[in-house]
Design brief:
Strand order of the largest sheet: 1-2
Helix content: over 70%
Number of domains: 1
Shape: globular
Radius of gyration: 20 Å
Number of helices: 13
Largest sheet: 2 strands, antiparallel
Mean pLDDT: 89
Strand content: under 5%
Distance between the termini: 53 Å
Structural class: mainly alpha
Low-confidence stretches: none
Number of strands: 4
Order of helices and strands: HHHHHHEEHHHHHEHEH
Length: 343
């Protein structure tokens, strides 16, 4: 018999991976924009993602919708507990979105710089907050079940704990590296060399932070490692992670930027995959009672009829999103060419 709960767990994970890989480099480009001084380079940066950024964010909407449809209890618990953080995230994404058009129609250099700053901060915030959210889920949230009702005692200051901030910074550096590698494919000359330097430096930072984060997780959330060494899927993802990490500096040195970007995408996908595998079958672990109060793919799911119906819709909709994404990237492949209509 087909286990729809597991299928939806995998599907939500795939959508999250799609968002992390695609919008991840958008966020990384925005972070780099914060440190870019040359006007022409800033213009190239923002136009490198101009045709694709909004399509990339469709994956976030799709992932959130899938989570709501398949695991509504998780959606309600997490979103209510992270309410302030998610409102901040929304404001960041709104400012990031409008900065494209306002920059384009701004006439003075000062106005363009202000909207560049809005674009950068609107990218920096989500890149950090997504990691903070993941860090909190990894360490467990203070949720319990009282008289059959789920009670969460999540506060905004509580989610800004040292471990989750560490995971947030790791995510920020990872996305910045991903964005720099993407820009190596879209730029030329001195600008491209700067992006190679950015990619190499953030790669080193990522390695250090990943090792520190992994060691910290052993002490903060040791349950994530239970039985992992006996799982062949763990070793598959772990080997992919190692190979992609090792290839990134090699690919940059060989100027094989397309393959390097693919390696960076595999790196992100492997990390998200390992995170999901370590959680399974949990979705939101409880820091109060891991065994009895955690939300899992079974006690927090919709009815089987709902899962079945939504799966049919997903099997129709997701291929359309994939096809759209592939077509857009094929149309806008190659180096950035600035015109009078550019941002």
């Amino acid at each position: 018999m087909i286990d729809l709960n597991i299928i939806w767990f995998v599907l939500v994970g795939v959508l999250i991976i799609g968002y992390a890989v695609l919008d991840g480099f958008d966020l990384g480009v925005g972070v780099i924009q914060l440190f870019t001084k040359d006007e022409n380079e800033r213009k190239v940066n923002i136009n490198s993602i101009g045709p694709v950024w909004d399509g990339n964010e469709v994956w976030l909407l799709t992932g959130g919708g899938a989570l709501f449809a398949a695991f509504p209890i998780v959606y309600a618990t997490v979103f209510s507990g992270f309410y302030i953080a998610f409102m901040l995230l929304l404001y960041f994404l709104v400012f990031r979105a409008v900065s494209f058009e306002f920059r384009k129609f701004s006439e003075s250099p000062e106005a363009k710089r202000r909207w560049d700053l809005a674009f950068a901060i609107g990218s920096f915030g989500p890149a950090l907050l997504f990691g903070v959210a993941i860090g909190n889920i990894m360490r467990g949230l203070p949720i319990e079940i009282i008289d059959g009702k789920i009670v969460s005692n999540i506060t905004f200051l509580g989610i800004l704990n040292p471990y989750s901030l560490l995971i947030g910074i790791l995510g920020l550096v990872m996305f910045t590296m991903h964005g720099a590698i993407y820009l190596t494919m879209k730029t030329e000359g001195n600008h491209q060399q700067k992006m190679i330097n950015w990619a190499n430096k953030t790669w080193m930072g990522f390695i250090v932070l990943y090792v520190i984060s992994t060691l910290s997780t052993f002490f903060v959330a040791p349950y994530l490692f239970n039985g992992m060494l006996k799982n062949p899927l763990f070793w598959t993802l772990f080997i992919l992670l190692l190979l992609s990490i090792v290839y990134i500096p090699v690919g940059l040195k060989a100027k094989r930027f397309g393959y390097t970007f693919l390696a960076s995408a595999i790196n992100i996908a492997s990390i998200v995959g390992l995170f999901a595998l370590s959680l399974f079958p949990r979705l939101v672990p409880s820091s109060i009672d891991l065994a009895n109060y955690s939300l899992t793919i079974y006690n927090a799911s919709s009815t089987q009829r709902t899962l079945e119906t939504m799966l049919i819709i997903a099997l129709i909709g997701v291929p359309i999103v994939l096809a759209y994404t592939i077509v857009i990237y094929r149309i806008f492949r190659g180096k950035v060419i600035l015109t009078k209509d550019s941002y």
